[in-house]
Amino acid sequence: MKMFSRFLTSCLLVASVVVHAADDQAAAQLRKQLDAMNTLQGDFVQTTYDKKGAEQETSSGNFMLMRPGKFYWKTLEPMQQLLVSNNKTIWLYDPDLETVNERAFTDDLRETPALLLSSDIEQLRKSFTVTRDEKDTSAEKYTLTPKVTDGMFQHLTLVFKANQLTEFAIQDSLGQLTRCVLTNVQRNKTLPEEKFFFQPPEGVEILKD
C-alpha cells in the first residue's frame, strides 16, 4: 500500500503529457515530441531524494505504456511489485504480501503525477505552463508547472535525447524529488493488450478502494 500511495503522489509512469499554447514556442516543441509517442517500453531506475537532496531509496524494473491511461510498471529490485492500468482500473500486486490493491481509474487519479505521463493529451492541454532549458544543448529539457497550485506536486520535468524520452522527475509539494532514468527505450512498438489487464492469482487477498 505504501508503494501504491507513493506511485500516485510522486510518479512512476512515462508516456505523454503536453501543454497547449499556440504562442508558446517551448510548449509547441514539447507537444511535437509527445504527440509522436503513442507507446513506450523499456527499463527504469527510480531514485527518491528528500528535500535536502539526500538519497532515500532506489528501485528498478521494466515498463510498458500505451496512451491513454494504460501502463504496466514492474518493479524487480529491491522488492517485486506490479502496477497495471487499463484506463478503467488500477491494480497493485505485491507478491510478498499476497495482496492486490484495486481501484477505479477515476477523474481525481487523472490529476496525480503518477498518471499524468500516461493520460490523454487532450485532458492535459490546459493544466500546465511549460518552459525549456535553452542552456542545455545536449538534451531537450522541459519543466511543467501546474496552473493549480494546491496540487500534489510542484514541478514535472521531462528530458529528451535524440527525440527519445530518457528521464523524468517530479518534485512534490513537500520538496521530495523522484527521478526516473529510462534505458533500452523503444517507442511506438506494438504492445500486447493483455499486459494492461491484471488477473489476480488464485488465493491472494483483493483490497478495493
From TrEMBL:
Keywords: Chaperone, Lipoprotein, Periplasm, Protein transport, Signal, Transport. The keyword Lipoprotein applies. Its main location: periplasm. It is found in: Periplasm. SUPFAM superfamilies: Prokaryotic lipoproteins and lipoprotein localization factors. Transmembrane segments: none annotated. The keyword Lipoprotein applies. Residues 1-21 form the signal peptide. Monomer. Participates in the translocation of lipoproteins from the inner membrane to the outer membrane. Only forms a complex with a lipoprotein if the residue after the N-terminal Cys is not an aspartate (The Asp acts as a targeting signal to indicate that the lipoprotein should stay in the inner membrane). Belongs to the LolA family. This is Outer-membrane lipoprotein carrier protein. It comes from Cellvibrio fibrivorans. The lineage of its organism: Bacteria, Pseudomonadati, Pseudomonadota, Gammaproteobacteria, Cellvibrionales. The gene is lolA.
